[in-house]
Write a structure and sequence with these properties.
GO terms for molecular function: L-glutamate N-acetyltransferase activity; L-glutamate N-acetyltransferase activity, acting on acetyl-L-ornithine as donor. Heterotetramer of two alpha and two beta chains. It catalyses: L-glutamate + acetyl-CoA = N-acetyl-L-glutamate + CoA + H(+); N(2)-acetyl-L-ornithine + L-glutamate = N-acetyl-L-glutamate + L-ornithine. This protein has 408 residues and is α+β, with helices and mostly antiparallel strands. It has 11 helices and 15 strands. It folds into 2 domains: 272 residues, L-amino peptidase D-ALA esterase/amidase, CATH 3.60.70.12; 123 residues, ArgJ beta chain, C-terminal domain (Ubiquitin-like (UB roll)), CATH 3.10.20.340. The longest helix has 22 residues.
């Protein structure tokens, strides 16, 4: 597998576009995107487990779980189409019908996604006009993918995309992805919005199995603010245009594809965590030596979610007591007297806790390490052989500023 330039248009047969439709008046940003596959693709998806779900989540679940096929995705930023009742659901159908009509695709094979302010209705004249503008602008190539990746952003500071290639049965297979997310990030399925395209030929049920498994160690292991969104959606489309033999079982080709998909998803997950609203640095926590994988996941996630620890990372303060405290209330049973903690970054590595007690470490060196991006905390509880990694970010003054006037 190798990383290449590009995003959702890197794989064979995929076009994309992104532009400003005017979803929210008074803005100038691109706010609508479209992805289109020349050929019908099998699709898989994971969605928010928040009881309050946005209308597009209901629509896309039906497409993924009932149809298992898709050929286009329409995305808007600015308005989430969440908590919008029957009108919101009807608007999803209108989006799919409009796109389907212009692309000659069945509406039930059009996925839709929204992100932005909760509670506001989409202005469908604007949305449908946006779809009409997007279709003729659909194009292959890196620039088209970048336009789409830019159009789905809200408080993000940068576009988030990646592409990789691997070889399956002698054929070159490509996977490309884009995502958005900076706030309301504490996924319980997948990220805010993530779209992955591939030209691989693979069975839909196996694709869904792989996505559901990988999401647990990638998107579900990030947190910015502890809030699980109403709109969390991760979608994968595979159109088979690489012409590899269809992957129908867990063999060598399946493992190679799964590894490539995992790489893409982990990269995108880290991009989201590292671009948390107002943040200065990505904070990565690995828990080693756990009795079970679940224990390791719970502990590492507890530390990246700790408000006090996040504030300490912002302040470049090696306040290891906050880390140990978060580990202690995580719900996992361990011996505090066996805990080791190491801080790492491009500035070096420093053991700050050994057997639950502070080492004679240099506060100056610790501050130097914590000044870099990313910052890593490596924990070892010496209770077994399992490990897990979670990703978060520091907590800054800017986070409060952004969320104090998000709707304006």
């Amino acid at each position: 597998m190798r990383v290449i330039e590009g995003g959702v248009t890197a794989a064979k047969g995929y076009k994309a576009a992104g532009l400003r439709a005017g979803i929210k008046a008074g803005k100038t940003n691109k706010d609508m995107a479209m992805i289109y596959s020349e050929k019908e693709a099998v699709c898989a998806g994971t969605f928010t487990k928040n009881v309050v779900k946005a209308a597009p989540v209901f629509w896309d679940r039906d497409v993924v779980y009932k149809e298992g096929k898709a050929q286009a995705v329409v995305v808007n930023s600015g308005i989430a189409n969440a908590c919008t009742g029957e009108e919101g659901l009807a608007n999803c159908k209108k989006e799919a019908q409009k796109a389907g009509e212009l692309l000659n695709v069945a509406p039930e094979h059009v996925l839709v996604a929204s992100t932005g302010v909760i509670g506001a209705q989409l202005v469908m004249d604007v949305v449908e006009k946006g779809i009409e503008m997007l279709v003729p602008q659909l194009a292959y190539g890196k620039e088209a993918g970048e336009d789409a990746a830019t159009a789905i952003l809200t408080t993000d500071t940068c576009k988030k995309e990646i592409a990789v290639e691997c070889t399956l049965g002698g054929k070159t297979v490509t996977l490309g992805g884009m995502c958005k997310g900076a706030g309301m990030i504490h996924p319980n399925m997948g990220t805010m919005l993530s779209f992955i395209t591939s030209d691989a030929a693979i069975d839909q049920k196996l694709l869904q199995q792989f996505l559901s498994e990988i999401v647990e160690d990638t998107f579900n292991m990030i947190s910015v603010d502890g809030d699980t969104s109403t709109n969390d959606t991760c979608l994968v489309l595979c159109n088979g245009m690489a012409e590899n033999s269809v992957i129908t079982e867990e063999n060598e080709d399946a493992e190679e594809f799964k590894a490539a998909l995992a790489y893409v998803m982990e990269y995108l997950a880290k991009q989201i965590a590292g671009d948390g609203e107002g943040c200065n640095r990505l904070f990565e926590v690995t828990c080693n030596g756990a009795a079970t994988k679940e224990d390791a996941k719970i502990i590492s996630k507890a530390v990246v979610c700790s408000t006090l620890t996040k504030a300490a990372v912002f302040g470049k303060d090696a306040n290891w007591g906050r880390i140990l405290c978060a580990m202690g209330y995580s719900g996992v049973t361990f011996d505090p007297g066996k805990v080791d903690i190491v801080l790492e970054s491009e500035e070096g590595s420093l053991a700050i806790v050994k057997d639950g007690i502070a080492t004679d470490y240099s506060e100056e060196k610790a501050t130097q390490i914590l000044s870099a991006d990313p910052v890593k905390a490596i924990l070892d509880i010496h209770a077994g052989e399992e490990k897990a990694t979670a990703w978060g970010c520091d907590l800054t003054y800017e986070y409060v500023k952004i969320n104090a006037d998000y709707r304006s």
